[in-house]
Design brief:
single chain; 542 residues; mainly beta; 8-stranded mixed β-sheet; 5 helices; 7-stranded mixed β-sheet
Length: 542
């Protein structure tokens, strides 16, 4: 019916085509029935001579086989490579291999059932950083590709595949896989080899290693700001993994901030770091006793606000002399700026270097006696030191004995090193009896004894105090006074005798001591009584 319809619509041309097709079909059927088999096998667009081998190859094709004609041709050329339905290549040989760095390692992978069109490959998956295998070697048929010269690959008739790593390095640690891809089923068979590379311990420095903590010119010095929490990380490596600990450097008697000698960790924490924590720290890593060890030293510096120290805070100079005030500066980081003040007034004079600042007054005048301040500033803070330039007297030094040989009088002696002999000054002595029961002074006012400076007897002075009580302790305060004010005070204590010491017969012809005077220059009643008693004692001895 279809043929008649086409004939009606297309005419003679269509009729001729249909007749030719029918003739071919009839001829093929007649040949198949008469001869039993055709001379060719037609698969898609591929015509293959008929033979028992061809029939076998065709019978092994699966249903809806892709590219079936080409596969039958390959099967006829190499019947040994023809895959058996359900039979796939298999591998064996996977294991863990341990090697020392610098040695050579060989992996052997045995493959069975592999055909010429199957693909074999070696891949590498590093221990860290890569999630899938990196191709090292690949072979399909006679075409082979190798990606690295560090490896050697050998195969034995596609059954035994060998891979050699020459002089393994620590970076070679990872998983190596032999992989077979079936050209027929696209299925994959693989075996894994785990390589463990042993290498000695090594410390590759200490973290942090970047600015602002480390400066290029000082790679082994780490800077922290004062009061921050500092962390040092020892970058130790090795296989087996080493034991790592921190300590202070050899020869240092100082312990770690925690109070311990060692910190058994790769990380050392220093909380609220201060200048006291500065110094050399040692990181040490060991792979067991006697196997391998490494040591790394790092210097910790603490950046802080300036620390200042005055070379001499109180300066006594006479008028007309030269004065130099020096402020010593410890500043990290640099630079540090120094400013000088007289009272609250900023001075425009003064010179500074990295570690000190100077203020010089070439000729001291009365108006220069004042308080001075040096203020030093860096990016982390400010510090200052104070100076006083004065013309007041220095402190005297009492050299008398603390035990008086007399009951009612005592001679007080002192020395005085004067820097200004041109300025007139007076010594003042305040004294009063001390109350032992109460452990302090009674609160009575001090008596004042004035004495002018005698330039004929420099550095050594004395005076006698009268009207004292026997067997009593007295407190003394001595100082000098000049036109610029009161000098520093010297404090002293002495005790009077309980019984007056009598003269022996060998002293009866000794001259009587000259009478002493009080602070007002007049002979006191106690002095007159002492003279009369001395005369009476002499008469009794005759």
């Amino acid at each position: 019916m279809i043929c008649l319809q086409l004939f009606r619509e297309r005419g003679l041309y269509t009729t001729m085509i249909l007749q030719a097709g029918l003739m071919l079909i009839l001829a093929y059927l007649a040949h198949a029935q008469g001869a039993g088999k055709s001379e060719h096998i037609i698969i898609g667009s591929t015509i293959i001579p008929n033979s028992p081998l061809a029939d076998k190859c065709v019978s092994q094709l699966g249903r809806d086989e892709y590219n079936a004609g080409s596969k039958v041709k390959d099967c006829i050329r190499d019947p040994d490579t023809t895959p058996t339905p359900g039979a796939l290549p298999s591998t064996s040989g996977g294991k863990t291999v341990t090697s020392n760095e610098g040695e050579s390692v060989e992996f052997v992978c045995t493959v069975t059932g592999m055909k010429i069109n199957d693909t074999f490959a070696w891949t590498f998956t590093p221990k860290v950083g890569v999630a899938r295998g990196l191709p090292l070697f690949q072979k399909q048929g006679e075409n082979a590709q190798q990606t690295s010269p560090w490896y050697t690959f050998v195969d034995n008739n596609r059954t035994v595949w060998r891979m050699t790593i020459n002089k393994v390095q620590r970076r070679d640690t990872g998983v190596y896989s032999c992989v077979v891809l079936s050209s027929r089923s696209q299925e994959i068979q693989s075996e894994n080899f785990t390589l463990v590379v042993r290498y000695p311990v090594q410390i590759n420095g200490v973290s942090p290693r970047d600015p602002p903590y480390v400066r290029p010119e000082e790679p082994n010095v780490i800077y922290f700001n004062e009061t921050e929490n500092a962390t040092l990380l020892c970058l130790s490596v090795g296989n087996p993994i080493p034991d790592t600990f921190w300590r202070r450097a050899e020869g240092s008697r100082r312990r770690l901030q925690s109070g311990e000698i060692f910190s058994m960790s790769k990380t050392l924490n220093i909380y609220n770091i201060s200048v006291d924590d500065e110094g050399i720290y040692t990181c040490e890593a060991r792979q067991g006793e006697g196997i391998s060890r490494d040591v790394y030293n790092v210097t910790v510096r603490v950046q802080h606000a300036p620390i200042v120290d005055e070379k001499q805070d109180l300066v006594r100079k006479r008028k007309g002399s030269s004065v130099e005030l020096v402020c010593i500066i410890d500043s990290d980081p640099l630079p540090a700026t120094a400013l000088w003040y007289k009272g609250d007034n900023l001075l425009t004079v003064g010179t500074s270097t990295q570690h000190r600042s100077r203020l010089v007054i070439t000729k001291l005048s009365h108006k220069d006696y004042h308080n001075y301040t040096c203020v030093v500033t860096n990016i982390l803070g400010t510090s200052s030191c104070q100076f006083v330039i004065t013309g007041r007297p220095v402190k005297p030094t009492i050299i008398s004995s603390h035990l008086s040989p007399k009951m009612h009088v005592n001679t007080l002696e002192w020395t005085y090193e004067d820097y200004d002999t041109e300025t007139e000054k007076t010594f003042r002595i305040y004294y009063q009896q001390k109350n032992h029961k109460k452990g302090g002074l009674k609160g009575m006012p001090f008596y004042e004894v004035g004495l002018k400076f005698n330039p004929q007897k420099p550095m050594h002075y004395n005076t006698t105090i009268h009207d004292l009580r026997a067997n009593s302790t007295y407190s003394v305060v001595l100082f000098a006074v000049n036109a610029y004010g009161q000098g520093d005070e010297e404090e002293f204590e002495f005790r009077t005798a309980a019984v007056e010491r009598k003269k022996g017969r060998d002293q009866k012809n000794q001259p009587t001591a000259a009478p002493q005077v009080g602070g007002n220059g007049h002979m006191t009643s106690s002095t007159m009584a002492a003279i009369l008693m001395s005369i009476c004692s002499a008469l009794l001895l005759l």
